[in-house]
Fold this sequence. Notes:
The complex is a heterodimer. Chain A is an alpha+beta fold.
Amino acid sequence: MDFTWSAELIEFRDELTQVIQQWRTPELLKEYRENHGAAGPLISEFQAELNRRGWSRMCWPEEYGGRALNPLYQFVYVETMEYWGMPYGNLTYTSVAPALLEHASEEQKKEYLPGIWEGRLRFAIGYSEPNAGSDLASLRTRAVRDGDDWIIQGQKIWTSGAEVATHVWLAARTDPDAPRHQGISMIIVPVDAPGVTVRPLWTMSGVRTNETFYDNVRVPYSNLVGPLNGGWTIIMHALNHERVGLSTTGNLAVHFDDAVRYLREHRPEALADPHVRRRLAEIKLELLKHRALAIRNAVTIAGGGIKPQEASMTKIHGSELRYSLSNSLMDLLGRYGGLSRETGELAPAEGSFERTWRASPILRFGGGANELQRTIIATRGLGMPR
Amino acid sequence: MNLDPSETQVLLRDTLRSFLANELPFDQVRACEKEGRADAELWGQLREHGWLATPFPSSLGGGGAGLVEAGLLVEELARRAAVVPIVEALSCGAALARCGGERGAELVRGLIEGAITPVPAVLESSDRFDAIAAEAAGDGSLRAEKYFVDYAGFATHHLVAARRGGETGLYLVDASHPAIKVEPHATIGRTPQAVVRYDAAPAERVAGEDGYDCLVQVARALCTVQIVASMQVSLDQTVAYTSVREQFGRPIGTFQAVQHHVANMATEVESVRLLAYEALDSLDRGSATAERIAIAKAAASRAVPEVTMLGHQLHGGQGYIEENDLYFFTLRGKDRSLAWGTADECLEIVAREIEKPTDWL
């Protein structure tokens, strides 16, 4: 057993952190916030810097321009970016790209991968439908072959980022007569294809998601990724990767550090209170438990495997901690804890605790509800009967 | 970063596991509990097979492995609820090997060869690790009252934490000396424990403050592994039982209410196991901090009653009766959650250093 990071990884982290410090200006963070992940001018420049340093695809195989580095580099990359709240491609990078690398044809890889690492292509995820949430395999959006094209008819929901995406990573029913897990295919749909409509849905976190409508949308047959009717396996693969990206320690731990800094600077008498320090210690305990689970999962993936129960444990723990951590920090800060960013300087840590609290439901039910994750741990991880 | 045991570590673990499966029936544990004694026969076997030597340097006749390996042994023994002072003797040995100089090395050889079985005698009526009041007199005699001394009556020697000239150190006392009185306690863990009174007992200083710190940190980390074992067995037995126990015409393990309790148990076991072995690994590498070891112990102490009680909830009456082995792990787990620092004490350590920057990677 060896619970330490190699010197190379630490060196990489330190270099990345330095670059982030140079680029992490209030203007860039504002652009990230307001464009909801779209590449505005500053983010595009930052992305170009990451590309110039060869970081955005360092773990990809060499034939796709990568350096085939150990996937732990990607873990360190995502953790560090998430800690500092910087854009790095996010779900396109952590979920769609690994799925393409694993399942797409050579032509498709050549077509999409460069755009992903350059930050030109951004995917929105098109899995859920109004009547296919946790029971995803009941999805009904249809794709019918018409010569060299697909014709797509249906509706998706929670298509987050579709307003700034170039493509939707769409799960469609291609064989309505097959058993339901065996009649689904993955098809790449350009958002600007005629017949695609995006309607905003505003969440209580202040972040926008969407429903998307597909009205006789025509895309080339060659946009099919992986085998015809083989989409379910690809979705499961992508979801396991997605759960890693959704469960970093970094974007939770930054709240802890912000809280300690805020208390030291603005409320030193509170930070001296043993009761307050004790509550912070409890948060730290949970953060380090989460770190352990996240690293366990990353090391398994770096070793070439994936254990769904490990991804599920990490996802459950991280999403529940997102709530309990922000809740505790708000309680510690009293009425100050409820002040939003718009208040200005009086809001602790730019109101990030109350914002995270408002955003905490999403990861508990999104990305596969935690109830489903618990069932996965019990049945697939521990072999309990179904 | 490699979180799995190496081939050698797996071999070590599996060898002890199959040895215990053959040689240590749970009825032998029940007999020890009933008679309030340690398992002297098993302790002798562990020594004969060289397991006690495992974590010590080969220059001292040891196996040349580290505390991670010690943890694997402790875990296996705790999975069989063995009544032996493994954590106590190995943590004494670690403190003596690391901080005891020549005399310490000699004592470690004695532990390996069977001449001595030392156990720590640390806490006093205050029950605080940072409030040791016992004074070791300049003439080499010790007057003290030590509480919660595990395996006090079984040990040949006590490694007593005491002060001299403002420094807390470790003092070796021959447990058979007539100036020592051992009064057994009855405890939830049902393992031997006592209050020990030293009435001007001859005491030899064998280590200073660093030895005392080392003793506490190693014992705390190994105790965390005992807790991991309790949780793991409780989880394993619960998975097995709910997978076959039928109600309403189907195994109760098919009900999601049951599955989700079990998933919560498994998540706790997994995270605490990682923290426990990370703590031991850091001790082996010399990078350990009191804070991280305290985090591991606090996490374990918090988790174990929750996990084992869920185990009982899912076993119903079958797990409540002592004919079932489940109770060993529930009671031992709770006992260990209190030993070597409760969750509260450990969180206090974390709270003291709450402003220190953390490397979250």
